[in-house]
Amino acid sequence: MMDSLVLLWVAFCLFFFLFKAQRPKNFPPGPFSLPIFGNLLQLNLENPINDLKKLRLRYGNVYSICFGSRPVVVLNGVHAVKEALVNQSVEFAGRPQDLMINHVTKNEGVVLLNHGPVWRDVRRFSLMTLRNFGLGKQSMEERILGEVSYITSHLEKCAGKSMDPQNLFHKAASNIITTVLFGTRYEHEDKFLQLFIQLFKELSKIANGPWAMIYDTFPVVRNLPLPFQKAFQKFEVLKDAVKDLISQHKMSWVPRQPRDLLDCYLDEMEKREDDSSFNESQLVTLLLDLHFAGTDTTSNTLLTTFLYLMTHPDVQERCQKEIDQVLGEKLQASFEDRHRMPYTQAMIHEAQRVANTVPLSVFHTTTKDTQLMGYDIPKGTLIIPNLSSVLNEESQWKFPHDFNPSNFLNDEGEFVKPEAFMPFSTGPRMCLGEGLARMELFLVLVTLLRHFQFIWPEDAGEPDYSTIFGATMSPKPYRMDVRLRNKRECVIQSQNTTE
Ligand code: HEM
Question: SUPFAM superfamilies given for it (predicted)?
């Protein structure tokens, strides 16, 4: 009996030491981790934000956890995030290369490309094109305003009733990015748009779910016929749809007269015949990447904004007053108008802060052995910039736990942007769609607030501000009452105020 117990104990110790996650020497501290699972069982994987917050209280702004046997460093608070992503920008600008999503996308596109010349080239091309230097005659602003007019006419039909805005915003955000990428907008009932959105949703669910975690943690299971194989199949269907689109586009493409980002890419491919950064396979994944990165993020931010505007009618009214005053009888808002709308600007930034849309950023890795705040971090370490911890950091905000545009206003009522405002992250990998997203948010919100009043339905009970965690965070589904504002009255009111 005693012999068996001793044997069992030895076996247990052996198992423990063989499979225990090893933190490197002088690595950031963190909780005790179990063999095989690391700290995964100690985190609420449905929404780990609160667990990460507790670990920060215990271990400080730079700590580590283990995903299986893989040590991961979590950065918290504005100083640690800036120290890594800005002051040591190259060292912290890598992306993991061995997760399920890397294998699905074959490390093409831009979001998941590792730091290096190909990423730099593709990022520069995408940024230049999105900055309107390459989009031909129709400006980015016109493209956005075109879609805004569809949202407005849809909401006009809903006036006097309550509606669920989720689909409307999602399809509008998707259409804005497809007009920029392919020069095409789709009717909201269009089969192609619906297939695209559905496949992205399913792919994202698998990529952020437990099966992806199992794939990433236990390499031996990767070839087994388990549910994560569906991610590979769905991505192939998406790629085939985009390949068709590219073939159709090529038929009407006139070199050096670009209509959209796809045309610009074809021009670039022609210019750089032998350049491995620019080829058709890379183009397919780049288009999918940009579409994916630009849809959920923007639509979830809009959803959060309307939730808070409805439940803070005083803030809504103050924005409307300012918008009426500045726009007067002008037919459409322009992005330039933002400089004369400090309160509305502050409201939009505050909505982005509370929306916390990409709470854990996109994971980074270290590109070489480095040091951070006295700790040693080896090359290839997975880094999680916890943006949520920055956007809610008590020492950085006047009202960290409320929805209050004053977080972005100084004593003179002017718009100011604190350094802890980083919903787009920071450093060389920061969101490359920031300009587009900011223009979209401004033009959509200003136009809708000018035309409509949004009211929390009387029978909807207490508003629920809790969020659904994912690669992008969203509010729980809700309905909103839409009322037409009396435009004539708005104009007269704004004239009276200016007089
Ligand atoms: C409110 C809307 C948006 C938010 C909050 C947001 C946020 C983010 C964040 C946090 C990252 C990770 C940065 C990092 O790794 O440090 C990111 C990356 C990225 N975003 Fe956005 N994003 C938004 C809209 C868009 C749009 C409209 C596009 C489309 C053009 C876009 C394209 C990208 C791309 C391509 C990357 C990867 C950049 C790289 O790896 O170099 N995003 N975004």
Answer: Cytochrome P450 (SSF48264)
